[in-house]
Amino acid sequence: MQHEFKEQLVSAEFDLVVIGAGSGGVRAARMAASHGAKVAIIEERFFGGTCVNVGCVPKKLFAYGAGFPGEFELAASYGYRVADWSFDWATLRDNKTHEIERLNGIYRKLLDGAGVQIFEGHGRVESSGTVSVDGETLLQARHILIATGGKPFVPDFPGRDHVRISDDLFYLEQLPKRVAVVGGGYIASEFASILNGLGVAVTQLYRRDLFLRGFDKDVREFVAEGMRHAGVNLRFNTDVTAIEEQGSEKVVRLTDGSELRVDEVFYATGRVPRLDGLFADGVAVQTNERGAIEVNDRFETSVANVYALGDVIDRLQLTPVALAEGMWLAAFLFGEQKPEGPVVYSDVPTAVFCHPNIGTVGLTEEQALARYGTVRVYRSQFRPLRYTLSDIQERTLMKLIVDDSSDKVVGLHMAGEEAAEITQGFAVAIRMGATKADFDATVGIHPSSAEEFVTLRQGETVTAAPRG
């Protein structure tokens, strides 16, 4: 059923109307405008999307904050006296909020500067050529782009209303003393590490036998050991059956019959596409079994003239991927030079800011064996130089996976300090098809952790087990 619109804006047709001002939507809108298109963008929550407001940016700021107690401990071995330090949660929280507000303003200025018309409110696709804003304004569009991102998913169980989602951590009035973090993905692991670093007693619950599914197994095991050493209570093969509130405590009942008493329970059990109220009757796009919008290589949905990208299509839920998709689509629709091919999703580097950090690009050992049959695996574990003056037993893991027949490096994985920074540089080499011989011929920077990747010499040949 169509709205009866109080006001209609039909004086000029927009070439592109974007619903969602997150990373992908803003990039597509700006680039389309730079190609000469007349563009409108609609946002009902906050500019910059999940990443800027309740994701990558505030999470990384909190991860920095959580690392200072370890730095203070290390500093003593270098002759500094920092025994009287203290921590104020409100200062970290509010300074983070000021920075996010600054970034919100930057996103608005970028859109204004590009000539994109901004509408604040709820956008809904009324037809393949019209979009409404709060049921009051009707925009005509040659092309419509859905870039509404995702939202946290919490399963249904008794006591579900007593949990918090990942968004809530960034605005807590007080820092709790004891928490349970439920989930085994990168968000749950990052939050467990952050809260633990800030002095909270953390129990992370995951229903399978090992968290961080999809990452290399050596990395998963190494990170589990590191998080336990740092003080996180990891409980695998454990799930929540119910949560009860008793006074100021939350009693978490578990599948093994035990219970856990905490101040807060954070759920980070995955994200689902944000499609709430997005389509009028009769114009809903086709979705897959995960609820993600199905698109082809040109980001076209099942509805003519309607496109989608970013987390809402659930290909790779990474901000830089959404940016690449937005740039590609703008060039495809409005650029003088069309893209030569589709967006490439292989060899995309990524990081997890748990403690220890993870950086990875390319295939895991398991994936490489399935694809190539025989691979060479190079591993190294060591204590970084900066810790050798102290009693702190910080460790780093580095791993290369090489296709045995071509000598091509097909996977690079790291868990340890500065993993993201180091992996980003090596990702260029992986994307260009560097071989192990290329790595061996590269002179390392000494002393550094990064040089380990170009000095690995002792490898293990591994062959996939025969099927059947």
Overview of the structural elements:
The chain is α/β, with parallel strands linked by helices. 29% of the residues lie in helices and 26% in strands. The protein has eleven helices and 23 strands. Strands 1, 2, 3, 4, 5, 6 and 17 form a seven-stranded mixed β-sheet that branches. A six-stranded antiparallel β-sheet has the order 18-19-22-21-20-23, sandwiched between helices. β13 and β14 form a beta hairpin. The longest helix is centred in the N-terminal third of the chain and has 26 residues. The chain is globular. The protein starts with 6 loop residues before the first strand and ends in a 5-residue tail after the last strand.
* Average residue-wise pLDDT: 95
Oligomer: single chain
Shape annotation: globular
Helix content range? 25-40%
* Major sheet details: 7 strands, mixed
Summed up, the helix count is: 11
- What is the terminal separation in angstroms? 55 Å
Question: Which spans of ≥5 residues are poorly predicted at pLDDT below 50?
Answer: none
Rg is: 24 Å
Computed structural class: alpha/beta
Strand proportion: 25-35%
Number of strands: 23
Task: Summarize this entry quickly.
By secondary structure, this protein is an alpha/beta fold. It has helices at residues 23-34, 49-54, 56-66, 68-77, 89-114, 186-197, 217-230, 319-334, 365-372, 419-431, 436-441, and strands at 7-19, 39-43, 117-120, 123-127, 130-133, 137-146, 150-152, 164-165, 178-182, 201-205, 233-235, 240-246, 249-254, 259-262, 264-267, 271-273, 306-308, 350-352, 358-362, 374-382, 396-403, 409-415, 459-463. The protein has eleven helices and 23 strands.
